[in-house]
Write a structure and sequence with these properties.
The complex is a heterodimer of chains A (697) and B (433). Chain A has 23 helices and 30 strands. Chain A has 697 residues and is α/β, with parallel strands linked by helices. Chain B is built from 17 helices and twelve strands. Classes of the chains: A alpha/beta (697), B alpha/beta (433). The complex binds flavin mononucleotide, iron/sulfur cluster (3 copies) and FE2/S2 (inorganic) cluster.
């Protein structure tokens, strides 16, 4: 049991675990002690002096943010001396502050404004000239206005402690002290913008958001990031049907306030000028705009025709469409088109892991587990580049709980900064290297293993057998690439599996063609691509195939299409995503994009045109069906509705399919790349670090 | 090099070798009881060494006057971590120049003090953190360190006892704040020189997070004599709780400025009159800063005080680092206040709000006052800003800026008022409605 300490704060008896800081003890008692530099989870600074409190028997006021609660301590937070001190600190802070609140991005959500409003003096006594320096651009995304900075050092700490990047530091001294890049005059960093959003004032501002709006003019829509598989909650600031910013300052999701560069800035693909606004149909060899009715009617007619003559139809689904859409797509393909040639770009071997874990419960780690586990093993992945939130989570675990991390990678990774053991191995020799760590790993109380696409097929089984041999509780994360990569597999966008990893035989079907086979089939009659760009990497063998593409942009694949249907992005629809750890979260529609329709709507229109029955094209209704029919998805709706993450638990039994390791291939995106979608983000393209590369440490 | 002739009233313990030919060399040192204290310490159990220092009533000469023996006793000897001895040779306090004569004239005395401290706490590494401006002294120290290695007083298996101790000099880069012990340690570790949160104190977690004895140059220099002649003999030189002698850097409007070693408790007026040869040009004494600019100023009538930590504190100031700045009747106190604040504003590290913003604000108001552009409310504002800093800053630099400033405006208020612009009849502007 934790030891408890009793103390008195403002006359209230408070009991807190030993080691609790007075500022947090007060919070537990419902008493606010104002603070700028104190920040939960980051190193103590005691620099802003806002949190001074009176402690009985202490000759001076003490900083509540560094003071550890002691038994019998008597603390006062509202005595005249304390009130005076706070007022004085705010007066000091405002002396050289520009007070350009009317044009400051932070105006209205600024901690300095709020603090002065609540604790400050009404008048200024400062008659001198203020110290001024010009604004600086640290990178295309990060601007710095030194006069507004209150030097709370939150930005420095989040970048160093939180991310391990250490891009920001402190330069000059005294009143001329400034935050600045640690190397050179500009940032070469993750460009995550964590520093911008952690800034209590408008000193660090976002190159994308600055001077665009007043915060109160926006609506704030909590949804899930459209990019990688980590599934960060993001709160979009929306005004006039435009997304102005993304952040998660309310810490409302599993990621707390974390977002990487893609999550915070990469939403701008939605407004890229090349975004498709109208359906296109090929006429005389060229794609020409038509209206939705014409386009849908054409697709329905051709699909019916091909189906009627028993033609071969291939369907390629997406890593980025919702569970509801994926579910409907496979249902459409199997029930309406009568084809089982359905697949998606598989970026990790989730199927093999589900199979290898048959008979176990709770063996898939959640993002929460990554923060709590005592030990973790990373195999063949550059987490900081490929799985930024998971990397952040593990680092936070190390900082707060002393996580013991093992890394087996082909090149240097950032996790080596703190790993207890890091092993370099040649590609293909990962598991042998891992097995060499057996003795050490056996000494750990528990372990989470995260593995990249190098571990697939039989190797996954070998890895799980290795995990079993350690004799300790082991959980796994099969790393996949995109926002709903996991959901694509869970929803049965596979030629041999139905939703929930049930074999297709259960539905009386035979295994269909996998993605490369579909592309290579010379006699393919139709290809239907929903939110994917397979022709970027491989040609389509069948020259005669009727190709339908649903996408946001005229991708390499869309250029080959006979019909292109403009699709809505993840920020333009509701539904659910399942992240890399199997956590289901809800998307909320932030904006409408004129001309585009959600993939689910498109399925509904096509079904209607083909007089087929696939159920209502309504995300809630489809999710109801998923909950009722897909093993592991019967999650509590209130959790999702409240913006929470509900862990799914895939079916617990063998998955009798042939291993196809050659189909598993991560796109190896870096922090600044996000498949085809990322190419359309001006923000991601603007930074000088892009595109970046893996294994640079 | 010496800056002044020795004075007959001096009691020369730490300065006893000053003026000897080749006083920097180990041969001179050894010929004059050098390393005798250390040899004695080698025979003593560590606790006895600390006990002897406690008996001596040696208090830190860096400014705060913390009992040295007590500080050493806080070092956890049994800790498995390495321990360090760190010398604060940053000597940044305006009005203070005693450490430099100690290092310049008798570098081995400092090394011997470090060796004794190392022996007392079980340290194997020592650093002398020395201000960058003392480059020539670094050369003197490095030479002395080399000699000590050559003669077996440093290095492995010192004098065949199995004791190991290495000493390195490390230069600062021109920051007053790097004399503050925790900022010094940050700087020593290669980081930005800003202070650390305390506790933990250096004795428990100092250099590189390890237990560390950190003292001023003069504090270490007193230790060989304490071990050689006994703590009691050293204590007897001073007043109760204020053992020994100390080096006073007497500057300002006296006829014979210089660094003088006088017993603790020596009367300040006597120091000015007899040791310093009285006020320059036969003028009258106006005020004295008794221990460096961080200390509140004493008016002439407050100067009949014994120069030890407790008596000066009772008189409302501090003995500080022994920098005695004497001012005659011609001194402009507004200018003094401006000059002192310029220093603290320039040296504020910027880490914490009240010092960073308070010092620049004070400097600007004081400069305005000095230029005859003050407002009547400015004088109280200066005092209030100072009080708003006092006791609320992260490290004592803020206090060091605030305390003396309060004393200037309180004790010499009329000079500040006299500087206010003469009331000019302002024509009431014609208001057209
Ligand atoms: C702003 C500031 C500057 C200081 N500068 C020095 C210095 O230059 N030399 C020094 O010995 N102590 C200096 N000190 C005092 C040290 O923090 C520390 O108390 C001292 O070195 C301890 O040694 P002592 O106990 O032997 O005095 C300074 C303190 C402050 C707050
Ligand atoms: S954008 Fe991210 S990585 Fe770059 S400086 Fe800011 S916190 Fe550090
Ligand atoms: S830029 Fe913002 S976060 Fe960084 S120190 Fe200044 S106020 Fe704090
Ligand atoms: S009082 Fe604050 S700003 Fe001033 S030197 Fe100390 S830490 Fe730095
Ligand atoms: S919150 Fe305690 S000093 Fe800043």
């Amino acid at each position: 049991m934790e030891e408890l300490v009793k103390l008195t704060i403002d006359g209230k008896q408070v009991e807190v675990p030993a080691g609790t800081l007075v500022i947090n003890a007060a919070k537990a008692a419902g008493i606010e002690i104002p603070a700028f530099c104190y920040y939960d989870g980051l190193a103590l600074q005691a620099a802003c002096r806002m949190c001074l409190v009176e402690v009985k028997k202490a000759p001076k006021l003490l900083t509540a943010c560094t003071l550890v609660a002691q038994p019998g301590m008597v603390v006062h937070t509202e005595t005249p001396a304390v009130v005076e001190a706070r007022k004085a600190m705010l007066e000091f802070l405002l002396t050289n502050h520009p007070l350009d609140c009317p044009v400051c991005d932070k105006g209205g959500e600024c901690e300095l404004q709020d603090m002065v409003f609540r604790y400050g003096a009404g008048e200024s006594r400062f008659l001198e000239q203020k110290v001024h320096t010009e604004e600086k651009q640290f990178s295309p995304l990060v601007y710095f206005d030194a006069p507004r900075c209150i030097l709370c050092y939150r930005c420095v700490r989040i970048c160093d402690e939180g991310l391990g990047v250490k891009a920001l530091g402190v330069v000059h001294r005294g009143v001329y002290t400034e935050i600045g890049p640690n190397r050179g005059d500009h940032l070469e960093c993750d460009e995550c913008g964590m520093c911008i959003d952690i800034c209590p004032v408008g000193a660090l501002t976002s190159g994308r958001y600055r001077y665009k709006t007043r915060p109160w003019e926006m609506q704030h829509v909590g949804t899930i990031c459209a990019h990688c598989s980590n599934g960060c909650k993001t709160t979009l600031g929306v005004r006039n049907d435009a997304i102005i910013r993304a952040n998660n300052r309310d810490r409302s999701g599993l990621n707390g306030e974390f977002l990487c560069v893609k999550g915070r800035f990469g939403f701008d693909f939605v407004e890229h000028p090349e975004r498709l606004r109208t359906p296109l149909v090929r006429e005389g060899g060229e794609l020409r705009p038509v209206n939705w009715m014409q386009a849908v009617a054409l697709v329905a007619r051709r699909f019916e025709e091909i189906r009627a003559r028993g033609g071969r139809i291939g369907v390629i689904g997406s890593n980025r469409t919702t569970n509801e859409e994926n579910y409907c797509l496979q249902k459409f393909a199997r029930q309406v088109l009568g084809t089982n040639h359905i697949d998606h770009h598989r970026t990790g071997d989730v199927v093999a892991l589900v199979d290898a874990l048959a008979g176990r419960t709770g063996a898939l780690a959640t993002t929460g587990d990554l923060y709590r586990t005592r030990a973790a093993l990373v195999i063949a992945a550059d987490l900081a580049q490929q799985q930024p939130f998971l990397a952040f989570q593990l680092r936070a675990n190390w900082r707060h709980h002393g996580l013991r991390l093992y890394a087996v990678t082909p090149g240097p990774v950032r996790e080596e900064q703190y790993a207890v053991r890091s092993v370099r191995c040649r590609p293909g020799e990962e598991l042998a290297a891992v097995e060499g760590l057996a003795a050490e790993l056996k000494g750990e109380p528990e372990l989470v293993i995260l593995f990249g696409d190098a571990v697939k097929g039989e190797l996954v089984h070998r890895l799980v057998a290795f995990g079993d041999s350690l004799g300790i509780p082991v959980k796994y994360v099969c790393l996949v690439d995109y926002a709903n990569s996991r959901g694509a597999a869970d929803m049965g966008l596979l030629p041999d599996l139905l939703p929930g990893y049930r074999p297709v035989a259960e539905a009386g079907l035979e295994r269909g063609m996998a993605l490369p086979e579909i592309l290579a089939a010379p006699d393919l009659d139709a290809l239907w691509v929903v939110g994917a760009n397979p022709l970027k990497d491989a040609p389509l063998a069948s020259t005669a195939a009727f190709v339908v593409v649903q996408d946001l942009f005229l991708t390499e694949t869309a250029r080959r299409a006979d019909v292109v249907l403009p699709a809505a992005s993840a920020y333009e629809k509701t539904g659910t995503f399942t992240n890399v750890c199997g956590e289901i979260q809800q998307l909320r529609k932030a904006i409408d994009f004129p001309g585009a329709k959600t993939d689910l709507e498109i399925f509904g229109l096509l079904a209607r045109a083909m007089r087929a029955e696939i159920g209502p094209a309504n995300p809630e209704k489809v999710f109801e069906e998923i909950r009722a029919t897909v093993p592991g998805y019967n999650v509590a709706l209130p959790v999702l509705a409240a913006g929470g993450a509900a862990p799914s638990s895939p079916q617990n039994g063998r998955v009798p399919v042939e291993w196809r390791p050659e189909l598993i291939r991560s796109a190896r995106d870096t922090l600044f790349r996000s498949g085809t979608l990322g190419r359309y983000s001006q923000a991601l393209n603007s930074v000088t670090e892009a595109p970046g590369e893996l294994y640079r440490g | 090099m010496l800056y002044n002739e020795p004075h007959p009233l001096e009691v020369r313990v730490l300065t006893r070798r000053f003026g000897l030919p080749n006083s920097q060399s180990i041969d001179t040192y050894l010929a004059t009881d050098g390393y005798v204290g250390f040899r004695k310490a080698l025979e003593m159990p560590p606790e006895r060494i600390i006990e002897e220092v406690k008996i001596s009533n040696l208090r830190g000469r860096g400014g705060a006057g913390f009992p040295a023996g007590l500080k050493w006793s806080f070092v956890p000897r049994e800790s498995p971590k390495p321990k360090y001895v760190v010398v604060n040779a940053d000597e940044g306090e305006p009005g203070t120049c005693k450490d430099r004569v100690l290092m310049e004239n008798d570098p081995h005395q400092l090394l011997e003090g470090m060796l004794i401290a190392a022996r007392a706490v079980g340290a194997e590494t020592g650093y002398i953190y020395i201000r960058g401006e003392y480059r020539y002294i670094i050369e003197i120290l490095d030479r002395a360190i080399e000699e000590a290695y050559a003669r077996g007083y440093l290095g492995r298996n010192i004098l065949g006892t199995g004791m190991n101790f290495d000493v390195y000099t490390h230069t600062g880069a021109g920051s007053y704040e790097c004399g503050e012990e925790s900022a010094l340690l940050e700087s020593l570790e290669g980081k930005r020189g800003q202070p650390r949160i305390r506790p933990p104190f250096p004795a428990v977690s100092g250099a590189f997070g390890c237990p560390t004895v950190l003292n001023n140059v003069e504090t270490f220099c007193a230790v060989p004599a304490i071990l050689r002649d006994g703590g009691a003999a050293f204590a007897a030189l001073g007043t109760p709780r204020n053992g020994g002698t100390r080096l006073f850097a007497l500057s300002g409007h006296v006829n014979r400025p210089g660094v003088y070693e006088l017993p603790m408790g020596f009367n300040l007026l006597r120091m000015i009159e007899e040791v310093g040869g009285g006020i320059r040009g036969g003028r009258k004494l106006k005020a004295v800063i008794p221990g460096g600019t961080s200390c509140p100023i004493l008016k002439a009538e407050e100067c009949d005080v014994a120069m030890d930590f407790d008596s000066v504190a009772k008189a409302g100031s501090m003995l500080g680092s022994g920098g005695v700045i004497v001012m005659d009747e011609t001194t402009d106190m507004v200018k003094v206040a401006v000059r002192v604040m310029r220093f603290y504003q320039h040296e504020s590290c910027g880490w914490c709000v009240p010092c960073r913003e308070g010092t620049i604000w004070l400097r600007k108001i004081l400069e305005r006052l000095d230029a005859g552009r003050g407002q009547p409310s400015d004088i109280d504002l200066v005092a209030e800003i100072s009080r708003n800093m006092l006791g609320r800053t992260f490290c004592p630099l803020g206090d060091a800026a605030a305390m003396p400033t309060i004393s200037y405006v309180q004790k010499f208020r009329e000079e500040f008022e006299a500087r206010l612009p003469k009331k000019v009849a302002v024509e009431t502007p014609l208001v057209v409605v």
